[in-house]
Amino acid sequence: MTDRTVIALTGADRVDFLQGLVTNDVSRADGGIVYAALLTPQGKYLADFFVLGETDRLLIDVAASHADGLMQRLGLYRLRADVQIARSDIVVSRGTGPAPAGALSDPRHPALGWRAYGPTDVSDDTDWTALRVAHLIPETGIDLTPESYILEAGFDRLHGVDFRKGCFVGQEIVARMKHKTTLRKGLVRVRLEGAAQPGDEIASGDRAAGTLHSVAGDRAIAYLRFDRTADLRTTGARVTPFAGDIPEGS
To answer: Which of 63, 208, 220, 226 sits most deeply, having the most CB atoms within 10 A of its CB?
Structure first.
């Protein structure tokens, strides 16, 4: 894959440093892989990524479009910690067929297959957009934007947040959304009848209801208000949510 960058964190404080910043428990990446995100203090999304724990370093597998911003933000938090942050030349591969030696299962969902890290790309030809839409898996920069809250994007379902690990940036907002509020908006799967594309606005009658994001044929991921799910349309398509994706009581 050419759309991923691997950042290496070295130094004696690397685990404690990252543990205090990101949404998941970094200690569980020791010899494996976890999915996590870095948020603003206001609880909004900055970047999502995978963390791999090796003997003498942590590797962060992040979308290339977000690598510079993530490195800059980590550098701001580093202060006097014994942590070095650098790009590596590791190549990220992924697939759903037979896994190469050393590959790791994608921690978000079993259908997402494996991820491998090495000198060359051994990815297969999986239709990732169709697969993501089928299983409601948000993508960096498409379904996940600077306005996203990770619980609205399903991060608890995707094993991307650990509420028992202790503090992380934006934790107070995330915990409040988890325990004290009912989600009123979020990502859902929808069926499309007509022509549609990512970014199309969705209306319920004459009221704004949401936005289309990833589109695969006649299905898509949409960000919707859960109280406005009747008579949904874009300018070119009728939109029908999957009933099971709308929380009960919405």
So the answer is: 220
Q: Which of these three, 162, 177, 192, is where a domain ends?
A: 177
DSSP string, 122-143: ------HHHHHHHHT---BTTT
The verdict on 164 and 189 lying in the same domain is: no
pLDDT in tens, 76-107: 999 999 999 999 999 999 999 999 999 999 99
Which of 124, 133, 125, 96 minimizes the C-alpha distance to 112? 96
Its pTM surpasses 0.85: yes
107-120, pLDDT tens digit by residue?
999 999 999 999 99
Are 124 and 223 in a shared domain?
no
CB atoms closer than 10 angstroms to residue 111: 13
The domain containing residue 214 runs over which residues? 184-245
